[in-house]
Amino acid sequence: MIKKSLKQNSKLKIKNFLKDFDRLNQLHASRKHSKLILEEYLFDNQLLTLSHLYRTSRIQYLNLGGTYVRKLCSTLRSLRTHDLFKNEIEYTPSLSEFLWFKEYHQMLPDPEIEIDSLFRFSDISLFHEQNHRIIWSLLPPPPTEESNMRRYLNFAESLVVTLDIALGVEIGRDLSPVFERMNLIYRSSNKKLGKIKTPNEYRHYLLSIFCSTFYILELIRTKDILSAVNYVLPEFTKINQLAVSCSLELNEDFYKNTNPQWQKLNWKIAQQKLNQIHKNSKEDPLCISEDPLELETDLFYVRYVLDNFGL
Asked: Which of 138, 169, 191 is the last residue of a domain?
C-alpha cells in the first residue's frame, strides 16, 4: 500500500508540474521587449509581457549598469556566496532543459527526481535579486553602528519583500500561484485583495506590508505587530489586518535564523560595500529609530521607492 501511494504521489507531482509548465509556456510572449529578455531564463518573456513592474525592475537594474551571467547556479551556492552588492547576477540557463524534460519525461526511469534536479538550479527569482541592487541605490548611505546597520538591512529587505508581493498582485490570483510554484516569483496574490477598491487603499496596503514585514524581521512579538502597524498607519485598519496576515506568511526560518545569522556575519562587509556604492552621496546616513512606533518618519523612503517602481 505504501509503495502504491508513493507511486500515485509521484505521478500527481509530474502531472501538476507539466500542467503548470504548459500553462506558462502558452502565455503570450511579445517580441516588443526583446532587448530585455534574458536568454534561456525560464518564462522571462512571458513575465516581461505580463507585468509592468517586472519590466520596470529589469530596466532599472540595467540602467544601473547591472549585468547577468549565464552560469550553472544552485540555490545553495547562490544563497551562500552571491554578492548582494555587486551589479552582476548569475542565473542558470535552464529553459532548454525544461523543454527537453517535457518532451521526454515518459522515457526517464525516475522523472520525479529529474524535476527536483531542475528546480535545484532554477529557483532563484531574478526579480528579487535585481530589486536588492536597485534599492541600495535608492536609499541613503548606511549608518555606522551594528544595531543601526541591522535595522538598515531589515529596512531594505522589507522593501524587496514588498515588491515581491506587489508583483504577485499585478500578475493576479489566477496566474501568480503558477509562477510561484515554478519558483519564478516568491509570492502569489492574496485571495482577499478584492476588499481593496482604490489606488489609495492599495498604496496603503503596500505601506502596511512594508511596516509589518519590517517588524517581523526586527523580531517584534507577532501579537504586537498589528497594533504597531495601526499606530503608524491608522487610516485603514481593516487593510492593515489584511497586510499583516499576508506578511506573516514570510518564511519563519528566514526571519528567525537565516537573516539574523547573515547580518551578524556580514554587517561590516555590507557596510563597506554600501559605503562604496554611496561614495559620492551627500545625504546623511539613514538611521532607523530603535522605537518601532517611530517608523512613520522613515516611510518617506518607502514612498520614494514605491514611486520609483510606479506603485
From this structure: 138
- Model confidence over 220-268: pLDDT tens digits? 999 999 999 999 999 999 999 999 999 999 999 989 998 999 999 899 9
Distance CA 69, CA 270 (A): 22
Cα gap 21→103, rounded to integer Å = 12
Whether residue 106 is contained in a domain is answered as yes
On whether the CB atoms of residues 152 and 286 are closer than 8 A, the answer is yes
The domain in which residue 185 lies consists of: 141-311
Report the number of distinct structural domains present in the chain: 2
Chain-wide mean pLDDT for the chain?
90
122 and 63 part of one domain: yes
The mean per-residue pLDDT over the stretch 33-47 comes to 94
Burial (CB count <10 Å: 0-12, 13-18, 19+), residue 181? middle
Backbone φ and ψ for 71, nearest 5 degrees, come out as -160, 140
Q: Does the model's pTM come out above 0.90? A: yes
Residue 157 sits in the same domain as residue 302: yes
Q: Which residues contact 19 (CB under 8 A, 6 or more apart)?
A: none
Please indicate, yes or no, whether residues 221 and 76 belong to a single structural domain of this protein: no
- Would residue 215 count as lying in a domain? yes
**Dist CA 39 CA 11 (whole Å):** 31
Is the residue at 2 inside a domain? Answer: no
- Per the model's pLDDT, the better-predicted residue between 226 and 82 turns out to be 226
